[in-house]
Every structure is written in C-alpha cells, then in structure tokens.
Amino acid sequence: MKRIGLLGGMSWESSAEYYRLVNELVRDRLGGLHSADCLLRSVDFATVEELQVSGRWVEAGAMLADAARQLEAAGAEVIVLCTNTMHKVADAIEEAVGIPLLHLADATAAAATAARLTQVGLLGTAFTMEQDFYRDRLAGHGLEVLVPDAEDRALVHRVIYDELCLGIVKDESRAAYVEVIGRLVAAGCEGVILGCTEIELLIGQDDSPVPVLPTTRLHAEAAVDWALA
User: Fold this and answer.
1) What is the DSSP string of 109-166?
2) Exposure check for the chain: N or C terminus, fewer CB within 10 A?
3) Which domains are seen in the chain, by residue range?
4) What angle do CA 147, 150, 151 make, to 5 degrees?
5) Could you say which of 38, 82, 83, 85 is catalytic?
6) Is 70 exposed, middle or buried (0-12, 13-18, 19+ CB in 10 A)?
7) Of these residues, 38, 82, 189, 196, which one is catalytic?
8) Phi/psi at 202 (nearest 5 deg)?
C-alpha cells in the first residue's frame, strides 16, 4: 500500500470525510482490520479564506505548496488536495513536489465519462463556478459545463461558507439546493457535479432527479485506487 498525503483543512468538515472515506474504502477492499496508510496536513482555513476573498492566489498557492512539501518530506507518495476551490493553485503545488497530485477534476470527469454524461451542472463556491480553472479542466475531458444563474450561485456559495464549513446542515438549505438542481436539469444538464467537498454533507443522490457526482467520494476512491494499484 502506498502512502496517501491528504492536504486538508479547507474546511476540516470535509477533510474529516476524506479521512473516513479512504479508510472505509481500504477496509472494504482489503478486509479485516486494514486501514489506509495516510498522512493529513490540515491548514487554518480562516487564513486561506482571507486569501481567496482578497484574490491573493499566488500567496495561497505558496502556502499550500509548502504544506505539500511537508507531506512529501514526511513520506507521502501522492498528494490529495481535499478541496475543489483550491485546485486553482494546483500547478503551484505540483511544481513544489516530486510526487504526483491527483487532480480532483480529473477524477470527477472520469466518473462523468464512465456514466456517459456530456452536459453537467456544476455546484460549488463562487470561485469554482465563476472562474475558468475548474470548468476548463472538465471541458478538457469533453464535458459541457453549466453553472447556475447569479442568484443561485450566491445562494450556493453562502450556504457553503456560512453553514456547511461550520458543520451546520439545514433542511431549508437542502430544499433550496434541490430547487437549484431542478433549474440546472431544466436547462439540459444530464448530471450535477457536487463541486465543493462540503456539499456532500447536505446533498445526495436522493435529492436529484439526475445522477450526482460526489467529488469528495470520487477523489477518495481515486486515491485508494492509486494507493492499492
């Protein structure tokens, strides 16, 4: 088993899900008392969020690149960046280390392709939905990506930062997300990417009339596939 380096804390709510998932997946595949050989480097999300809001992405990239170097020095053999939004600085992380980074958007696109989806809706932070770093990566795999309108994007973003990142899960927010998904489906989406690692705390397949692509689980599965290959 190869050692997985989890670069998390953005937020720790979803990083805890990553830790749970990689261990459950290893246990399910190997049986018995097996668990994942992994390291977790968790950063202070308040600092990261401040850099996001102020557009200081170079500083954010340098911060996460340094954390990735620490994981490599501790023996990690692959980097798993436990956040969708901060894949905006994936290049800076890859350049800082000599081990691979498993890109979350690649794992998500592979699942969409396997499900024969071509047009997908994307839910995530405003950064993920409105900037091109994530949508272009998906488009590079042949996917057409649609995002909600401005009002719905604001709602999705607010729920992530004001509720889910704080461990708050509200039924009314779930209902609001279901309505957003319904509008994406009406616009032609064949599936919906839960493109923020916290969204899976709120939304599941039962909440959508079309397939959902749970990026946290898909990323964890890709990490375990790599570790056990």
Assistant:
1) HHHHHHTT--EEEEES-HHHHHSHHHHHHHHTTT-EEE---HHHHHHHHHHHHHTGGG
2) C
3) 4-104+218-228 (3.40.50.1860), 105-214 (3.40.50.1860)
4) 115
5) 83
6) middle
7) 196
8) -115, -40
Q: Indicate the burial class of 49 (C-beta count within 10 angstroms; 0-12, 13-18, 19 or more).
A: middle
CA distance 201 to 82: 14
Q: What is the pTM of this model?
A: 0.96
**Does residue 125 have an active-site annotation?**
no
Q: Could you tell me which residues are beta bridge partners of residue 81?
A: 7
Tokens at 100, concatenated: 């691979």
> In Å, how far are 51, 61, 229 from 203, measured between CA atoms?
27, 29, 31
216 has catalytic annotation: no
Phi, psi at 203, each rounded to 5°: -120, 140
Residues 6 or more apart whose CB falls under 8 angstroms from that of 190 comprise: 117, 118, 119, 120, 210, 211
Question: Is the Cβ–Cβ distance between 152 and 182 less than 8 Å?
Answer: no
Among 73, 86, 71, 12, smallest CA distance to 43 is for 12
Per-residue pLDDT of the chain (229 residues; tens, 9 = 90+): 999 999 999 999 999 999 999 999 999 999 999 999 999 999 999 999 999 999 999 999 999 999 999 999 999 999 999 999 999 999 999 999 999 999 999 999 999 999 999 999 999 999 999 999 999 999 999 999 999 999 999 999 999 999 999 999 999 999 999 999 999 999 999 999 999 999 999 999 999 999 999 999 999 999 999 999 9
Nearest to 167 by CA among 67, 45, 54, 68: 45
